[in-house]
Amino acid sequence: MSTCPDNLQEVLIGILSTHTACIAREINDRAFYEFDATFEDFVNIRSTRDSLVSQGIIKEVSKKSPYDKDYKFFFLTTTNSSKVSWTINCKLNHLFEYSKYTKKKIGHFCEDLVAEAAVELGFPEVEVRRRLGMREIDVWCKDRNENFYWVIESKNRRQEINTTDIRHVFQKAEKATSKWNVTTKPALVSSSIYNRVPNVPNLPIIRTGAIYAQDEEFFYEYKALLGSWYIEPVDSVPDRIVEQLDEQLK
Predict the structure, then answer these.
(1) Are residues 193 and 110 in the same domain?
(2) Same domain, 39 and 109
(3) Same structural domain for residues 205 and 239?
(4) What domain range is 51 assigned to?
(5) Pairing status of strand 205-207 against strand 231-234
(6) How many domains does the chain have?
(7) Can you give the C-alpha Rg of the chain in angstroms?
(8) How far, in Å, CA of 81 to CA of 214, rounded?
(9) CB neighbours (10 Å) of residue 70?
(10) 176 within some domain
(11) What are the C-alpha distances in Å from 137 to residues 115, 125, 223?
(12) What pTM was estimated for this model as a whole?
C-alpha cells in the first residue's frame, strides 16, 4: 500500500492510468486501499475528479445500472477509446452479475454464517430469517444464559450502518417482544470496512471487517476487477465472526 499523496490529482490519475475506466466507488476503494486515503478524503477525491472533468483531463460516461441511478465511468481523455470501451463493458457485466447475487449469495449467505457461528458458540434455539409479520429477523437465538432472545440483523454490505438500520433493529426487537411475550435485545452485524461503526447504547455491533460471499470464482474476479478489496469469498464460518459474536453478545 502506498502513502496517499497530498495532491489527490496524482491519486486519481494514477488509478485511471492503471485501471483504465472506473466508477466512483472503485476510485474511492482503490484510493483507500492502494494509496492509504481515508474515508474523509472521499469528498475531496470527488471534488478533484469533478475539477479534472471540467478541465477536460478526465471524461465521464453514463451507463444503465440495475438500480435507480446510472453508473458513471471515469477515464483519462488520453486513453485509447477501444481499451476504454472494452474495460467499461467488462466491468459493467460484472456489476450487473453482482447485483443478482446480493440477496442470496451475499445477504442470506452472511446470515447463515452468523447463525452457524451462534450454534458453534452454544447459543440455543438458533433460527435464520424468522418470520415477523411481513418482515424477517435475520438471525434469532436465545442468549447463552437463556434469559432473553437476541434479534440480530446482518448488514453484509459496503455501506456503513446508518440511523435507519439502527431504528429498524430496535423496532424488530420491540415487535418480537410484543408478539411472542419474551424479552429480547437487538444486535447488528456490520462489514465495517471503513471502521466507522457508531457507538449506540444497548446495541452490540459485530464487526466482520469484510463482505463475505460464497466461495465462487466470480467473486474473486469481481474483487480484482472492481478493486473491492473487502470482498472475501469463504466456504466456512470465518474466525472473525465467531470471535466478534462471542465478544459482543455477552
Answers:
(1) yes
(2) no
(3) yes
(4) 8-79
(5) unpaired
(6) 2
(7) 21
(8) 35
(9) 11
(10) yes
(11) 12, 13, 29
(12) 0.91
